[in-house]
Design a protein that fits this description.
The protein is α/β, with parallel strands linked by helices and 281 residues long. It folds into three domains: 6-74 and 149-207, no CATH class; 77-146, no CATH class; 209-267, no CATH class. Helices cover 45% and strands 8% of the residues. The protein has ten helices and four strands. The chain has helices at 15-25, 76-87, 100-108, 114-127, 131-141, 148-159, 174-188, 197-205, 208-225, 237-251; strands at residues 6-9, 53-56, 64-70, 161-167. It has a four-stranded parallel sheet with strand order 2-1-3-4, sandwiched between helices. α1 links the parallel β1 and β2. α3 packs antiparallel against α4 (114-127). The radius of gyration is 20 Å and the shape is elongated. The protein starts with 5 loop residues before the first strand and ends in a 30-residue tail after the last helix. 36% of the residues are buried.
């Protein structure tokens, strides 16, 4: 029996959304509201599996994968927000987290998905005693190369033969997204018959909080780098963590965690963190 082409994706990487766009763009399924019950990727709309069989990596042992949603290091800031808030409906909006109990509430709830527990559950005991600076440090560590999503991705490429990669960043670029959907459909033996630009636009519109947040932090980093004044007193803990991460990549070493976070980019004077030594910044 011939198997359907497989679209493989990790949690939160928009694979369900891509599958919906493929089946609608091909004309095999009548267009419908992807957010009909406000569940986004988990909306229970009827989908034709004639276009692609879409699965998470842990659900598939097949060697041959038609397409895989590929992630890069720079995708993690948006991706993590999406995993814990927009995609999984776990209620953990990283842009609003101010205290440890907000993270623990989501991790410890009876319906907690294993991706949440694996993502932050094992880290809580390591960083919690350090208070808010520890929360910032945990977020910062999750944005680096040791992130479990990147580790899993390496295993995926070793285990499977992947014909096409669909970059995570393409979901946020309408012309690139539609062009790549067209290419996948041609490879599947279909044509791009129904325009899905309105779905891509709605998708991006629903991500504006995190997209604007990322741009804000990158603006703050540029101000730090040019010694330009910028008020950063309203940055949330997640944004502070990302700014620290960008600074570390720039200076080339791990910086000491802030006890009181700077309120202006001109006040950011990072100090290298040495094991067993704590500096008051």
């Amino acid at each position: 029996m011939m198997t359907l082409p497989i679209l493989m994706f990790q949690g939160g990487t928009h694979g369900n959304f891509l599958a919906r766009c493929l089946t609608v763009a091909s004309g095999l399924t009548q267009d419908f509201s992807f957010y009909g019950n406000n569940k986004g990727a988990h909306n229970k709309g009827k989908l034709s599996r004639a276009v692609v069989n879409h699965v998470h990596e842990f659900e598939c042992d097949d060697k041959d994968i038609f397409a895989y949603v590929n992630i890069q290091l720079e995708d993690l800031y948006v991706l993590q927000w999406h995993i814990f808030f927009a995609a999984g409906e776990f209620g953990l909006d990283t842009l609003k987290v101010k205290h440890w109990d907000e993270v623990e509430r989501v991790v410890n709830q009876d319906t907690a998905h294993e991706i949440v527990v694996c993502g932050f559950g094992s880290q809580i005991n390591i960083f919690k005693d350090a208070g808010i600076p520890g929360l910032r440090e945990m977020f910062k560590k999750s944005m680096g190369k040791t992130n479990g999503l990147l580790t899993t991705q390496s295993k995926i490429f070793n285990k499977h033969r992947i014909k096409n990669t669909f970059e995570f960043a393409w979901f946020y670029d309408q012309s690139k997204f539609c062009a790549k959907v067209d290419e996948l459909l041609v490879d599947l033996g279909y044509s791009y018959l129904v325009d899905v630009r309105h779905h891509q636009q709605e998708f991006v519109d629903r991500k504006q909080d995190i997209l604007k947040s990322k741009k804000l932090v990158e603006q703050a980093f540029n101000c730090y780098n040019t010694n330009t004044s910028m008020d950063i007193s309203n940055l949330c803990v997640y944004e502070q963590a990302y700014l620290d991460y960008l600074i570390e990549q720039h200076v080339g070493y791990t910086i000491e965690n802030w006890q009181e976070y700077p309120t202006n980019t001109r006040n950011i004077k990072p100090t290298e963190a040495w094991e067993g030594v704590r500096y008051e910044l």
